[in-house]
Specification:
Elements: H1 22-32, E1 41-43, E2 56-60, E3 65-69, E4 85-88, H2 104-117, E5 141-143, E6 146-154, E7 160-165, E8 174-177, E9 180-183, E10 185-186, E11 197-201, E12 206-211, H3 216-220, E13 227-231
Parallel strand pairs: 1-3, 10-11
Antiparallel strand pairs: 2-3, 2-4, 5-6, 6-7, 6-13, 7-12, 8-9, 8-13, 11-12
C-alpha cells in the first residue's frame, strides 16, 4: 500500500485474532471502527476460504469503508452503523500482477485499498453486490431471571467475551460457563487472587470471563460460540 500510496497512514488494529476465527474478528471490527476518523478504510483479512470461490467485497456505511472477504466478517458492523452500499471487487486491473491463491490480503485487498486512498471511485471496483454473506449478531435471550448467551470472542490473554451487557445482569448474578460457576461481578482483574476466575464488564462493555494472571479459555476449555447461562439475582 505504501508503494502505491506513500502518503497514507496505516494502523494495525490487531494480529491477535485466533487463526480462522471469523466471529472474533467480526467482534473486534464492530468494536473498533467507530474510534477512527470518519472516512477511514478498514481491511479485514481473516480468510479461511482464501483461494476458493468466495468473493472479496468493498462496503461502506455513512462514515466508513471496508474491504474484506465475503465470509460474514463485516456483518456485525451493522450493530453500530447500517451498511449503505456493497460492491463485488472484480476489477483485476487493480490487483498485483501475480495473485497468490493463499494471500489475497497482499495481492488484492491491499492494492485495491491503495487505489481508493488515491481517489479511485468505488464504482470502478465492480458491480453493486447486495447478497454478500451476513451473520446475524447473536443477541442474548431473557427467560425469567435467566439470561442465555454465548461466547463471541476470545482474546490472546484467554479472556472470553460474551454477548451480554451490563443491562442484562446485576452485581449478584451467578454465571455458568463450561460447567464452571462464578458468583458475582467484579470491578477489575485485580479484585480476586492470582489464578482465580472472575466475571466483569470488560472495556468493550460486554461481560467477560477471565483468570487473574491466567488464561480462562485454556483453563476451562472455552471457545467462541459456546453457550453460557446467567442467573440474575432478584434481590437488587
Amino acid at each position: 500500500m505504501l508503494s502505491s500510496a506513500p502518503g497514507i497512514s496505516i494502523i494495525d488494529i490487531t494480529h491477535n485474532v485466533p487463526p480462522q476465527d471469523i466471529q472474533t474478528a467480526s467482534f473486534y471490527l464492530m468494536m473498533s471502527f467507530e474510534y477512527f476518523p470518519k472516512s477511514t478504510l478498514f481491511i479485514a483479512v481473516v480468510d479461511p476460504m482464501v483461494g476458493t470461490g468466495r468473493g472479496i467485497i468493498w462496503a461502506k456505511t455513512e462514515n466508513y469503508q471496508f474491504i474484506c472477504p465475503d465470509n460474514g466478517i463485516i456483518s456485525w458492523v451493522e450493530e453500530k452503523e447500517k451498511i449503505t452500499e456493497a460492491r463485488f471487487i472484480k476489477n483485476v486491473g487493480l490487483f498485483l500482477p501475480k495473485v497468490s491463491s493463499t494471500f489475497h490480503g497482499r495481492d488484492i485487498m491491499a492494492p485495491v485499498a491503495a487505489a481508493l486512498a488515491k481517489g479511485l471511485s468505488e464504482k470502478k471496483l465492480g458491480p453493486v453486490f447486495a447478497s454478500y454473506r451476513k451473520n446475524q449478531f447473536p443477541h442474548p435471550a431473557r427467560i425469567g431471571n435467566r439470561v442465555l448467551g454465548q461466547i463471541i470472542a476470545v482474546d490472546r490473554f484467554g479472556n472470553a467475551t460474551a454477548n451480554i451487557t451490563k443491562q442484562h445482569i446485576n452485581a449478584k448474578s451467578i454465571f455458568i460457563v463450561s460447567d464452571k460457576i462464578i458468583k458475582g461481578l467484579k470491578l477489575t482483574y485485580a479484585s480476586v487472587q492470582e489464578g482465580e476466575p472472575l466475571a466483569l464488564i470488560g472495556s468493550f462493555g460486554f461481560l467477560e470471563f477471565s483468570v487473574r494472571n491466567g488464561n480462562f479459555a485454556k483453563t476451562f476449555n472455552v471457545k467462541t460460540g459456546q453457550e453460557i447461562e446467567v442467573m440474575v439475582s432478584l434481590d437488587e
